[in-house]
Amino acid sequence: MSSRRSALKNIAAGAGLLSVTEAFAASEKALGSTLNGKINHSVCKWCYGSIPLETFAQECKKIGLTSIELLGPNEWPILKKYGLTCALPSGAGMGIEKGFNDPANHDELVKSYEDIFPKLKEAGYTTVICFSGNRRGMSDIDGMRNCAVGLRRLIPSAEKYNVTLVMELLNSKVNHKDYMCDHTAWGAGLCEMVGSEKFKLLYDIYHMSIMEGDVIATIKTYHKYIAHYHTGGVPGRNEIDEGQELYYPAIMKAIVETGFKGFVAQEFIPKREPLASLKQCVQICDVA
User: Fold this and answer.
1) Residue of 46, 135, 138, 150 whose CA lies nearest to 105
2) The CATH number of 38-285 is which of 3.30.70.330, 3.20.20.150, 3.40.640.10, 1.10.599.10?
3) pLDDT for 58-95, tens place per residue?
4) What residues does CATH 3.20.20.150 cover in the chain?
């Protein structure tokens, strides 16, 4: 059994057409739970709010994840205890709705991020999440310019502490009404306007599938601007198995083919037993 792919092929040939769930369950039985390393696996803790972080960290370690993310400085020591990293920390900013597109927020945002940069460096982390904010009647081009002005103020400090600001692409159709950074092309335009490798995008597959579709082609076109990925089933933001419309093995293969070396984080809301679903979805993304 040289690879998960060959195991799946052999299993499918012997058992007929299998669902994604059945195929990956069978491959796990045949090959064990070792991950192949082409994808760096992370998970967003907020989706598992009822599980204490210490317990969750231990279980993630067993599954083969190397990161738990969207956690702030007070939570990082628990990750260190279990040999985990925080691939995309939180702990700065003013929330999703109040972001860099409003100049009135810039002074507070700059202070917030400049306060956390030394903590990130001390912890060994090199990214932090940020947001555009809501439009509130503002045009996209004005918002882009305003974001660029605010973000440029932080670039010298980001370079000093070797931290990349990562702005999340979110859908404004279902979950985050009026959010500005809701299309990949807009985010890429902002990256060009900021003009620094210390500012990039979080491409959330769930959100961008809702907003613009054409996920694989978009990833191939804009991958140089993308520092991080999130998953989620469409519709509903639940498990990424055959119960939703996206085929994640193909999406992960496309990400790998771009040469991406960052993290892919599971950010689905489990409908079934949470840790079993997490393990299954990590395996779905663990392409050969």
Assistant:
1) 150
2) 3.20.20.150
3) 999 999 999 999 999 999 999 999 999 999 999 999 99
4) 38-285
The structure tokens 């507070």 sit at 108
Tokens of 74: 């007070």
Q: How far are the Cα atoms of 20, 153, 190 from residue 111, in angstroms, in the given order? A: 47, 10, 21
Q: Tell me the pTM.
A: 0.88
Dig out the tokens for 87 from the structure.
Answer: 């691939």
Closest CA to 84 of 263, 228, 284, 226: 263
3-state secondary structure of 161: helix
Question: CA distances (Å), 59 to each of 62, 66, 249, in order?
Answer: 5, 11, 23
Residue 65: closest CA among 79, 51, 47, 48:
79
